[in-house]
Write a structure and sequence with these properties.
Number of strands: 4
Organism: Roseibium aquae
Radius of gyration: 11 Å
Protein name: Type II toxin-antitoxin system RelE/ParE family toxin
Length: 67
């Protein structure tokens, strides 16, 4: 998974945008059986917001981590 994190900056993973209804600017990608949510921090770095197993209810957990 850490290799995938390193690939975010190089656009080596296909990331989708977080839906606009959440009111945050962020992205996500799937890694094996997990969803990785990330965003660009104010200083330009990449921040991993949360990592969820596919069985978890994504929307409820996502709201907890971003709000």
């Amino acid at each position: 998974m850490f290799v995938a994190f390193d690939q975010i900056e190089k656009r080596g993973v296909m990331s989708g945008s977080v839906p606009a209804e959440f009111g945050v600017e962020g992205y996500f990608f799937r890694y094996e059986s997990h969803f990785v949510y990330w965003r660009r921090l104010p200083n330009g770095d990449i921040g991993i917001s949360t990592i969820l197993h596919e069985r978890m209810h994504q929307m409820d957990r996502f709201k907890e981590d971003f709000f």
